[in-house]
Amino acid sequence: MLHGMTTEPVQQNGVGTQDAFQRLWTPHRMAYIQGENKPTGPEAGDGCPFCGIPQMSDADGLVVARGKHVFAVLNLYPYNGGHTMIVPYRHVADYTELDGHETAELAEMTKMAMVALRKASGAHGFNIGLNQGVAAGAGIAAHLHQHIVPRWGGDSNFMPVIGHTRVLPQLLAETRQMLADAWPSG
Q1: pLDDT (tens digit, 9 = 90+) per residue, 86-123?
Q2: Which sign, positive or negative, has the C-alpha torsion 116, 156, 127, 166?
Q3: Residue 160: which of 62, 41, 80, 50 has the closest Cα?
């Protein structure tokens, strides 16, 4: 059993003969599907999780590192283990709304996250990007956040490709601590 997941043979119609397949159940993903932690509107006071995280402890908020203008936080619903986001403290929706200091620190902290992810997990590559607006896939479009998704050779196995499921080998709290320990001083 993986933490938070169970595998079990499924019986036909729930009562018939077992088949040869194992099913991977990930009930914690339903919270994301149903919109848990989503803001109720576009303003900072509308329940934006990125505005609330800085007031939490690092462990409770899954904060990996804090800068003057931006912070690094683990994605609560990661694409891969170590999926980190760089988020400005200021509630802005669009990259063009960042000032020069925020833009520079976002870029610098992205580099630091890459260094930490390579050191902590041996990442071979990264997908890095900003989803600007709902039409572009932003889950929380009202507060800018840059994704840093570590990748490894061969990590596109059958689970995400065929099964549309990701298997994460570590609890988020453990991943956060591992990355915080590997974070370059700076």
Answers
A1: 999 999 999 999 999 999 999 999 999 999 999 998 99
A2: negative
A3: 80
Nearest to 2, CA basis, from 26, 38, 21:
26
Our answer to whether residue 145 is catalytic in this structure is: yes
Opening angle at CA 152, ends 146 and 158, nearest 5: 100
Phi and psi angles of residue 66, each rounded to the nearest 5 degrees, phi first: -125, 135
Q: Where are the domains of the chain?
A: 1-36, 48-182
| pLDDT tens string 5-42 | 444 444 444 554 555 555 555 565 565 556 666 666 66
Residue 25 near residue 4 (C-beta atoms within 8 A) = no
Q: Which residue has the tokens 């080998």?
A: 169
**Distance from C-alpha of 167 to C-alpha of 163, rounded to nearest angstrom:** 11
For residue 81, which of 1, 154, 7, 176 has the smallest C-alpha distance?
176
Q: Which CATH number describes the domain made up of 48-182?
A: 3.30.428.10
Strand partners, 128: 148
Catalytic residue among 83, 145, 147, 164: 145
